[in-house]
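Predict the structure of Chorismate synthase.
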Amino acid sequence: MSGFWGNKLKISIFGESHGKGIGITVDGLESGFSVDFDEVQREMERRAPGRNSMSTARKEGDKVEIMSGYFNEKTTGTPLCGVIFNQDTKSKDYTTQQILMRPGHADYPGHLRYNGFNDYRGGGHFSGRITAPIVFAGAICKQLLQAKGIEVVSHIKAIGEVEDKQIDYCSIDIEEFKKAQSKEMAVLDDEALLKMKDKILEVKQQEDSIGGVIECAIIGVPGGVGNPFFDSVESTIAHLAFSVPAVKAIEFGKGFDITKLTGSKANDEYYYEGDVVKTNTNNNGGITGGITNGMPIIFRVGIKPTPSIYKEQDTINISTKTNDKLKIVGRHDPCIVQRAVPVIEAIAAIGIYDLIK
Ligand SMILES: Cc1cc2nc3c(=O)[nH]c(=O)nc-3n(C[C@H](O)[C@H](O)[C@H](O)COP(=O)(O)O)c2cc1C
Ligand SMILES: C=C(O[C@@H]1CC(C(=O)O)=C[C@@H](OP(=O)(O)O)[C@H]1O)C(=O)O
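Done. Here is the predicted structure for Chorismate synthase.
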């Protein structure tokens, strides 16, 4: 089975991009919590397709219908199920995807795994569209975490070679991040934002695509959360991050760059600020031994360039068993990164809520 995740919180996703609908069941939420559904819908809008020239042209309302688990304006504590009905499908664009396998997409592995019975339309269950219900569940977890003084924020660290400003891992300016959320893309530095936008529109013009990096910070998690080995905070977040289509890399704190430091530079030295324990640096991204140390949790995910590009590509025809050419039609994101920002925040919130519940 692969549609289920969680320990104390359990989520189960379902649906296909061109099927009737997509959704999620969330079990293990605390009872008696009033969800701000306007805020949930704002989170859905941050991810929704068809909102600007940097996105797929497919337009979805992405309004979530609550089927269960919410009564008298409060969570009941029993499974909360949210459904989103698909509206703007154009399945004929995918006629050739039955036999011509898109490089970089799940067509071929999905065909093998499900013996040809997979729904190939719009990528079916493999589609980035299935991240909409994840954002829904994450938006609720975010609110539950906020009530405990925990904030989850993120920004686009890079699109291709264009980078946003370096953040201070020890002291996250939450307001600066929140301001970035209302921009066209979640970038802290306005000049970098314009350069990133130009880059995305340039590759779009060239019938190509581009990837990038999202950096996420979780602030306010007390020290002592998590477990050694298999349920470490890193394992929990990484498991969820790699469940997001197009995520190909993850690193915590200084990440791969920590390997270039000596121990005396890499260690985060402790000090007391009043009775609060802090560290001078945060190279370990707020986690040591798989357990939080009270500093901001910092991680980055690498998102690959969108696989469906309009340039002609080499591929295979699984019907004739010959080599062939593929020229994709349809509506695709020239870059996934800017739409995946709320998805990464959502998986972070789901993971941390599961650990602290
Ligand atoms: C928000 C979001 C939007 C996406 N949009 C597209 C798209 O328009 N076209 C496409 O080919 N892939 C898109 N993807 C990525 C594919 O779904 C993904 O690359 C594919 O399922 C293969 O999985 P993998 O890249 O994790 O190996 C999107 C992913 C996300 C998270
Ligand atoms: C619909 C969404 O994005 C889709 C993700 C996607 C893919 O292959 O992942 C391919 C495209 O699907 P379609 O060809 O049906 O338009 C995107 O539009 C969404 O994110 O809500």
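The CA atoms of residues 7 and 220 lie 22 Å apart.
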